[in-house]
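Fig. S4 source data, part A: sequence.
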Amino acid sequence: MNLQQLTCVAVYLCAAGVLFLALLNRVLILMRERWYKTPFIVLVFMILSCGAITAGYALPLLPWIMIPMLILSAMLVGEILRLGIRQKCAGSPPIDTIPHKIKLTRPVTTTDLICHRYQIELPQWHGERLRVAHLSDLHVNSHLGAEYFREVFNAVEEEKPDIVLYTGDFVTNAKSLPMLREIIRPMGRFGSYAVLGNHDYWSDDREVGKVLMDKGIKLLTNESTVINCLGGRILLTGCDYPWGQSAKNIQIKDKASLHLVLSHTPDNIYWMSGKSADCVFSGHCHAGQGRIPFFGSVIVPSAYGRRFDHGHFVVNRTHLFVVSGIGAANPPLRIFCQPDIFIIDICSCIRG
């Protein structure tokens, strides 16, 4: 193999790599958990890699090199557009994060829990300061241990939240249901509320829901409830789409209410922002679960790729909060990606 062929193979492999990542994020990783899912993903990777090597070796440099170059160019343009949209939708950074840093010498951060604190002012809220604790993606399993989850819940309770929101994926599979029953508990002065995630539906949504309700956590399965507290009125809606049986519809609030929506995936943000949602709380992305220092996430299960992988965003005046989550799944490991909880203080906006 001469230098020209090596160059061609390298270019084709790069194009195959970015194409695989696009398919992985937007299609493959969203497949239902079955025994064949991982082998199928590996098979797709091998087909693309072998095809790239074969094409780079067998095809002449011109004009065929233009195919991988076009793929790479399209991906580069897409990444630039993503960065622009992400910057346009960027919300406020946390007012505090404890602890602050990840050490490069300790890449495994599976149980290095951190707390991000946010504060936003909303004209729709007419009461006293409302403190919301947002948790997601517990993925309860024996690898992390019950004591870890108890420490997480203790950390939440120390923040004295008014309401606690769980946004799905309580378990990875049905084997963890007994452990979920052992550790889960309601928190918050005015209650704990939840929606289910894709893994809950893939495991046993009825049993997961039963555990939550038995433990005093209100499950909002494509429904709404009203909370009157702190001198204000909250319309709280749960949305399971696309894994539940829900249509793309949420209850429209009255003008006197603050509308908070729980959606396991942040992919629903655009149509929700066109409804009456003031804040949307999501998880699902795990902030990538494995991140590259100074670059960020690589694998994100979202139709929008890395656009809304983690943090605070504002989309058409709707605030979106996407947590990293508490646990990890397939494998139960986090690399340079800390599990977290969000504490959001919602304050009234007094206009002069």
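Fig. S4 source data, part B ends here. The two ends are 74 Å apart (CA to CA).
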